[in-house]
Amino acid sequence: MAPMRVSILPLIFAVLGLVFSNCSGDIKDIPLKGCSKISGMPGPEDLAIDRDAGLLYVSSHERRIKDQEGKIYFLDLNSSPLEPKLLEVEYPKNFRPHGISLLNQNGKYRLYVISHIALYKEHSIEVFERTEKPSAKSKAGKWKHVQTLQDPLVTSPNDLSVASENEIFVSNDHGEGGFMLYLFHDLFRMKRSEIAYFDGKSWSSLGNPVSLGNGILYVKRPDGKEILYRSSFNEGTVLKFDIKRENGKIKLGEPKSILLGSGPDNLEIDEKGNIFTVTHPSVMKFLKHASNAESHSPTKIFSISPDDSILEIFSNSGELISAGSTALTYKERVYIAQVFNDFILQCQL
Fold this sequence. Notes:
This protein is mainly β. The chain has a single domain, classed as TolB, C-terminal domain (Neuraminidase). Helix content is 8%, strand content 49%. The strands form 6 sheets. Strands 14, 15, 16, 17 and 18 form a 5-stranded antiparallel β-sheet that branches. The chain has a 4-stranded antiparallel β-sheet with strand order 1-25-24-23, with no helix packed on it. It has a 4-stranded antiparallel β-sheet with strand order 2-3-4-5, with no helix packed on it. Strand 7 and strand 8 (122-132) form a beta hairpin. The longest helix has 11 residues, at 9-19. InterPro entries: 6-blade_b-propeller_TolB-like, Serum_paraoxonase/arylesterase. This is Arylesterase.
């Protein structure tokens, strides 16, 4: 979900209550075993993993306190106990991280991170490059901020998926405009959030606007087939596009809708090609949780197999984790991020 200023939430409650009053039913509990919290990272909204090294990178931003800047943390998933470490790097000014994507291209590691420089007004993609390999002294190695990407087509970026240094897919959650226009579009479920695409030189729009776009994921299957998945929050679906390349240009085929029944957030893939997404069953409870940590917001997790069949693997009314945002698997465990509170939940699969 997109970050928001807590001070305007009463207005949202009053208006959205009329629209989403039927979106807060009881949640059937589907538990996972052996769950425990990994604390110390405020608002750990998105995750990215280096599977070779077992390092989990975390986009962290305290969204409940106005004008707070954020950081990137990492976890060595092969260590015990699991303790978050701050990624020591010179962060750009007004760094407020959101979606994150890790690229390993021929041994060259880069982190691409969406930053909301000024909420609802100015956004960027900040690029960090690993300059020294991990060592006993520094598990994540050394990193350097190397680039800032901005473009008018990056209207309100929520998530991104990086296929190479010359190919970035960005999911906007809204079109142009400020907060009040965003609210108007959400109320009437107007399809204004498009996909922005960077080819290494320039930006273009891949179109396909939805109402409140969210997670996005580029996948290249073993047979060479290229697919783009995108969360369409207000429709409660994940859209699946075949990617076509014609004369050096990229084109998306007609999307297939994978219906989940509640608003999907970020998208991650496991080593078997299954897609994992976390959904928000209640918009109203999510908004209340945004301003009050003690007000629970339910979380569900679905897996989508390569043949597009779905399986609900986790459901919780919010007592265990509220407003979950990302589910990422590693060695028979799943790591569940969330938008606001200061921990990641790890459970057995």
